[in-house]
Amino acid sequence: MASENQASVGDGSHGTSNVVVPLIINGKEETGTSTFDVVSPYTNTTCWKASSATPRDAIRAVEAAEAAFPAWSQKKPTERRDILLRAADILESRLEQNAELMRTEMGADVGASQFFIVPLGIRMLRDTAGRITSICGSVPVVEQEGQSAIVYKEAMGVILGIVPWNAPCVFGIRSAACALAAGNTTVLKSSELSPRCYWAIGRAFEDAGLPPGCLNILSCRPQDAPEVVNTMIGHPAVRKVNFTGSTAVGRRIARTCGENLKPCLMELGGKNSAIVCADANLETAVREVLAGSLLNSGQICMSTDRIILHSAIAPAFLASLKEALASRSDPSAEPPTLVSAASKARVQGLISGALSSGAHLIHGPSEASANSCNAGEERSVRFAPVILGGAKEDMRVWQDEAFASLAACMIVDSEEEAVKMANRGGYGLSASIFTEDLRKGLQLAKKLESGAVHINSMTVQDEPVLPHGGVKNSGWGRFNATPGLEEFLVTKTVTWQD
Length: 498
Hints:
The chain is of the alpha/beta class. The protein has helices at about 5-10, 55-75, 75-95, 95-105, 110-130, 170-180, 195-205, 225-235, 245-260, 280-295, 315-330, 340-355, 395-400, 415-425, 440-445, 480-485; strands spanning about 20, 25, 30, 35-40, 45-50, 145-155, 160, 185-190, 215-220, 240-245, 265, 270-275, 305-310, 360-365, 385-390, 405-410, 430-435, 450-455, 475, 490-495. The longest helix is centred in the N-terminal third of the chain and has 22 residues, at about 110-130. The strands form five sheets. Strands 14-15-16-13-12-17-18 form a seven-stranded mixed sheet, sandwiched between helices. Strands 9-8-7-10-11-19 form a six-stranded mixed sheet, sandwiched between helices. A three-stranded mixed sheet has the order 1-5-4. The protein contains 16 helices and 20 strands.
């Protein structure tokens, strides 16, 4: 990479001049011959360019990881741990800069980026590092006299991570750290919407002393992504794939993995329900439902999309909800930002369809469903929070992942009906239950088909000690904690005659 561009990226400058986000292959930063524009939703203009990997670049990245694997997998656990802890310290020292990169690329606000997502990624890295020395096998007692056995837990090889744009400092760190901690090497294919965030993660690991080739970072133009990704999945050195993103793309990735007999971890979309029981604490329920719906502009896979209200509490809840939204409304403040104009148009289509089918606006601007923007809005991608009432099960707003500060309400007459409604639709990532009766909350949680259920707190909860993942159309496998490490280890059985 040219020295001018290295300075532009490396010095924390966030201007557009001379910034080309490089690839990282075998410890070296490369710009290559092809680039693409990265558009900031804050300005709806290009904030910088990023290098676009070719299939040949993808092969080189996999081969670099393959070459680095023998030495990295044989490093003592304490050495791997110390490198990951140094990377966490470096990321913490650059927290504000990395949070600003996230805001620029995907439109997050200061609260979500600087005080939630980036710190969470750092805590995850430290937690994963601390678990490395606990990886061990077992010594089962076998049936045959005079024979013994040992079960090893070993690194798999090269891991391909395909990561999204909405929380890069969590998804990139989680994908890389779990693989590296288990002794694997990895290639991360970043979202084209947030390549500089992923470059910053790779740079931190490099500066922490991670050997070349252990972590490679690729970005590419959207139209090139299928060929680049399929090239890597098909490479013999790639032993497992982890994908975080939409269910639609996840199906295609899983299909390709199946054709190549590659195991994959899928953390996919969600259509997450908050069930408000008749005995719920109104203040808690309103606060947590709004937090789950609006955090990071609703652009979190665990965001609250559905609000299922028991009829006995629905009038009081909706009145309190309107009051809470009115109290936080500031006419002079700009609405939250969505990642792209295409995303905003998609969300407006969901609202238009619902309103035309009988839903009504509980909160939000009267022009929420408009498909056009005024002159001021064209300079950024803004979307004010919207809460809909009168939702029906066949509406797209009830079935499709919104990925915006948009939620729909439905009223039911029993908790059993609420559980059935939450379980229908195919997704199963996260859910909330609001009740003052913990015994009832636990009973309902067992009936919900979801990877996580949070009683009296929002659907958005992801922390280092809690396994994270979904069921049904929300995927399979788990990140975080011990299950997250186990995903990237292979079991080997060895027996011998005494």
